Amino acid sequence: MPQLQVTLNFLRQLAKNNNKAWFDAHRKDYDAAKVQFEALLEDLIMNFSPIEDLFGMSPKDFTFRINRDVRFSTDKSPYKLSMSAALGQGGRKSRRLSYYLHLQPGECFLGGGIYMPEGDQLKLIRKQLADDAREFKKIIAGKDFVKSLRRPQRRKAKDCAKRLPARPP
């Protein structure tokens, strides 16, 4: 597993100096941090090959930009304070099931799922969960799941137009 100290140190400094002038002056530090992060992704690509077909893809296909889109945000800081990637067929732009890696000092995690599924996909996912609720609950309550991953965080949907029934049919 690649060392990530350079990456984490860069991100710590960026959190204290999130502005273009500082970033431009430390471009070489960013490049070194990015090389370390991409080495981690290369390692993950190799290790994921038995379960996920990522043949022919490179870390650049998975990595999200460090620049923030500030057009509609009240927070105008120009850079994200993390490095992140979506590992799955199709890379970061995929609408398929992917693994998400988030590297940030004090807030590193690996997750999985589908980001913003299309309406038909969402209906199918909800139906599958409702149809197999017992199996899903059994999986997430399982000793191995709880031991290897932290418990999923519960998030409340503010505006969920189509809710699942309280109890699966």
Description:
With 169 residues, the chain is mainly alpha-helical. The protein is 43% helix and 9% strand. It is globular, with a radius of gyration of 19 Å. The chain folds into two domains: 5-116, no CATH class; 117-169, no CATH class. Strand 2 and strand 3 (109-113) form a beta hairpin. It has seven helices and three strands, in the order H-H-H-H-E-E-E-H-H-H. Helix 1 crosses helix 3 (27-48). A three-stranded antiparallel β-sheet has the order 1-2-3, covered by helices on one side.
Q: What attributes does this structure have?
A:
3-stranded antiparallel beta sheet; globular
**H/E series:** HHHHEEEHHH
Low-confidence stretches: 155-162
Number of strands: 3
Quaternary state, please? single chain
Number of domain modules:
2
Query: What is the overall silhouette?
Result: globular
Q: What's the short story on this structure?
A:
This protein has helices at residues 5-16, 20-25, 27-48, 59-62, 119-131, 133-141, 143-148, and strands spanning 83-87, 98-103, 109-113.
List the helices and strands and how they pair.
Elements: H1 5-16, H2 20-25, H3 27-48, H4 59-62, E1 83-87, E2 98-103, E3 109-113, H5 119-131, H6 133-141, H7 143-148
Helix pairs in contact: 1-3
